[in-house]
Amino acid sequence: MSAIKIIPLPLGPFQVNTYIVTCRETGQSAIIDPAGEPETIIDTLKREKATPCLILNTHGHPDHVLANAALKAALEVPVCMHAEDSDFFSDSPEIGDLERQTGLTVDTVADRLLTDDDRLQLGAATIQVLHTPGHTPGSCCFLVAGHLFTGDTLFVGDAGRTDLKGGSLDRLIRSIENKLFGLADDTRIWPGHNYGNRPTSTMGREKIENTYITDFILDP
Questions:
Q1: 4-218, which class in CATH?
Q2: Is the pTM of this model over 0.90?
């Protein structure tokens, strides 16, 4: 049995995968990418008898941070985001365009600014922060107990778009190659959206089937 329990909740107008990750030993939980519907998240925590400790954002796009403020107020837990995205989405003059495109308001006020290889304690489990820029400047993946929460960096059979402000295909490919490709083949991938033919995958399967890996990394 895994040291953590994972509950995926497709939430919000873009059906982002919000994940409630709970240490089985202590009951402490992290909420990854709260995409809206805070009452659903809170009800799930209560049902699981989980103790929320962290809100983790894989990146600062509005659809992934929509419930940050409501959950922070209701649960009194800190919001964590990579420093580059916190700065970028707070200061960039183009954010108004992004808000108009999505119809959502950006809220990137973070209590803890993350950096690459930070380690966050979740009860008896440790969450490792992997900075994977490309989809956004501060995109991150979170690795815990053999499970990788990839946000919009890596999907099942696909990868995040890079045509929005702050995106870079070159940086995205380098991130996948340098930070994710070397992970164990049995590392379980939990993406930010269900865009593939199944909700989760493994790094081993993605090395065979994901064209961003086969075409850009294995056969450049």
A1: alpha beta
A2: yes
